[in-house]
Amino acid sequence: MAFLPDESRALPPPPLLNKGSVWLGFVGWMSALMDNAFNRRPILRAGIHRQILLASLGYFVGYQLVKRAEYMHAKVDRELFEYIRHHPLDFQSPTEKKRIGQLLEDFYPIR
């Protein structure tokens, strides 16, 4: 599948109720309601099957988009950690941390 490669199957699935799927499910349902309104049909009572279809279609698309976003973020994280592993000298932490009193100059009020 071109949208999600096979290596994305190793990732844990996102939760079923996530922001993307709920939002796009709501957008799908609202598009069915807008279609009813533009065609001068009763907004909530006409075309219940279309409302359910478009809401579930939006939910599915939102879920797949969240899966793709998580895969892309995991791929970038993997590449960054691989780079850090190959170049450890560029990412050495300082041996002794400076305290805030060592960083700031002494304060002398001017009157």
UniProtKB/TrEMBL annotation:
Entry similarity comment: Belongs to the complex I NDUFC2 subunit family.
Membrane topology of this protein: Single-pass membrane protein
Signal peptide from the UniProt entry: none
Function: Accessory subunit of the mitochondrial membrane respiratory chain NADH dehydrogenase (Complex I), that is believed not to be involved in catalysis. Complex I functions in the transfer of electrons from NADH to the respiratory chain. The immediate electron acceptor for the enzyme is believed to be ubiquinone.
Organism: Lonchura striata (white-rumped munia)
Keywords assigned by UniProt, alphabetized: Electron transport, Membrane, Mitochondrion, Mitochondrion inner membrane, Respiratory chain, Transmembrane, Transmembrane helix, Transport
Keyword Metal-binding in record: no
Pfam families attached to this UniProt entry: NDUF_C2
GO biological process, one term: mitochondrial electron transport, NADH to ubiquinone
Entries under InterPro entries matching the protein: NDUC2
Protein name: NADH dehydrogenase [ubiquinone] 1 subunit C2
Ranges that cross the membrane: none
Highest taxon in the source lineage: Eukaryota
GO CC terms in record: mitochondrial inner membrane
Keyword Coiled coil recorded: no
Localization in the cell: Mitochondrion inner membrane
